[in-house]
Structure to design on (187 residues):
């Protein structure tokens, strides 16, 4: 593989040369991940908004490579739960990831298979290190798009199944205008 330079606007995910295509996720793709499926159905019926989009440069997904890109989580709520990413473990569980907040503010909800839970708030100019073994989900509790750069080993893989079936142990919801972490009633 040869070194390369690429145009890539991390704040918007736009790559004019077309080498990176954004992936969008709408409420209909995550209905069961929200605590209030009725609120999710209402959102789907009234236009099925985009919750977030991300653009990734994958570089062959081989051992030793790095994947990088950015994620934009839009502001909003489904019921009283903030817009968030699906979240995942890496298939190679030990694979770590670095995030760097470019714009907006939000949380990273993390948990291990053993049940450790960690919630970190990040602001522009702050980097977050997600060690291997920690599932991670980005949550936007602000009023602006929450944008983060990410870099992870190219062969990490994404295990969505575990989170899809069981959910996270904890949720972040709005109470009296403020974000609070609560137990997931479905866990
Ligand atoms: C990120 C995420 C991105 C979208 O690139 O894939 O933020 O979140 P979901 O993959 O949970 O939908 C990353 O963590 N990659 O490993
Ligand atoms: Zn990841």
């Amino acid at each position: 593989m040869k070194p390369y330079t690429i145009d890539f606007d991390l704040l918007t995910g736009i790559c004019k040369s077309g080498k990176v295509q954004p992936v969008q996720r709408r409420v209909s793709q995550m209905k069961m991940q929200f605590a209030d499926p009725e609120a999710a159905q209402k959102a789907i019926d009234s236009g099925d908004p985009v919750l977030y989009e991300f653009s990734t440069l994958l570089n062959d997904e081989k051992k030793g490579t790095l994947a990088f890109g950015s994620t934009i989580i839009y502001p909003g709520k489904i019921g009283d739960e903030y817009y968030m990413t699906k979240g995942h473990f890496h298939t190679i569980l030990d694979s770590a990831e670095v995030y760097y907040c470019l714009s907006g503010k939000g949380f990273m909800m993390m948990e291990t298979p053993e049940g450790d839970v960690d919630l970190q708030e990040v602001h522009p100019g702050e980097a977050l290190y997600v060690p291997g073994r920690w599932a991670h989900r980005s949550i936007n509790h602000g009023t602006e798009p929450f944008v983060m750069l990410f870099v992870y080993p190219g062969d990490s893989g994404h295990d969505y199944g575990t989170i899809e079936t069981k959910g996270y142990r904890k949720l972040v919801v709005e109470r009296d205008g403020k974000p609070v972490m609560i137990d997931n009633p479905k866990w």
